[in-house]
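subagent[fold] <- orchestrator: predict structure for attached chain, return tokens only, no commentary.
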Amino acid sequence: MATQTLVIPGEVLTEDNLPMPSNPSVALKLGPGLRHVHPSTVTSTLAGPLWVDRRKNAVWVENNGGRYIPQSNDVVIATVHHSSTDWYHCSITPHTAFAQLPQLAFEGVTKKTRPQLTAGSLVYARVISASKHLEPEIVCYNPSTGKSEGMGELKGGMVYHVSLGMARRLLLNKQREEGGLVILDEIAEKVAFEIAVGRNGKVWVKANSVKDTILVGRALQDTDKNGLDINEQRKMVKKLLREI
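subagent[fold] -> orchestrator:
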């Protein structure tokens, strides 16, 4: 389970703040808000809570008010802006350069079977390279397995915006224990829906009806905006379900 402390920009992290992996061969993973200074110094570039996941040997700074900065291995929801001969040029956020999505970067496709995406199409993708000097590159499969694992074009549904902190909590394997979230589990007992969460603060929701889709999106945004705890989330879901 993640633990946290508060850091400020320029602060040097001590060994006490960094995770100790069970396997020494596992490399330390630095997430948003941290920078490695050669040879072995780690400093913060953002102010906010420092989150440490010792199981994944990962550490990052959470900053809900900041802009999303693409990081390798992040999953994101991107919008196709235009295409060229071999690439789709996609918007991850309004303030970053277009991400480059190879037209063959989908599970099992060929030039004849590749998806025909147009401007405005949504894709669920993974960042495989990111640098402040280069445009990010994304793919719609897991590079480790070659499988889509839920990534690809997102058809229908609606997109909702949440804070970066909320997006990270929604992506945790144990949302209740590690993120204090039960909202999706509570809704799923009564409403069937699909969901894709992007680390860039976008959530795609698709249910059997527009009303149910709006219910899920509204519940997520209200939980985020109002900082609802587990009991408050349950009460809100009961109220929303009575209204449909």
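orchestrator: received. Logging for downstream: The two ends are 36 Å apart (CA to CA). The longest helix spans residues 210-226.
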